[in-house]
Amino acid sequence: MAKILLAEDEEVLRMLVVDTLEDEGYHIDEACDGEEAYQHIQKNTYDLILLDYMMPVYTGLELIEMLRREQNGTKIMMLSAKNQASEQQKVLDAGADYFMSKPFSPLELVDRIEEILSETT
Known about the structure:
The chain is of the alpha/beta class and 121 residues long. It has one domain: Rossmann fold (3-Layer(aba) Sandwich), CATH 3.40.50.2300. It has five helices and five strands; from the N terminus they run βαβαβαβαβα. It has helices spanning 11-23, 34-43, 60-69, 85-94, 106-119; strands at 3-7, 27-31, 48-52, 75-80, 98-101. A five-stranded parallel beta sheet has the order 2-1-3-4-5, with helices on both faces. Helix 1 packs across helix 5 (106-119). The radius of gyration is 13 Å and the shape is globular. The model has no long low-confidence stretch (mean pLDDT 93). Residues 3-117 form the Response regulatory domain.
């Protein structure tokens, strides 16, 4: 099954997403800030990275820019309450592959992840 990194500083949301994805059979690594996420990415290979936009240390946007400079081609989905069209475009221009607005239902997230992962196979 696919390996996913979830970087989300809001603990309750992180726990909800982790529980939901693990119930679907995904292997999940989790990070509570941008620095911890970056450390995971340096040590592991992921099929998908889910990033919160606003996190301590490195924002999701900063992480995307760092990863793309390093030629990391892993699929990235930004999760954000900043859902204005200009913010979404900024995220996509930085190198994210997908954007999902918060709040979202866990089932909606699972459906989107399944779509993304089926594109790469």
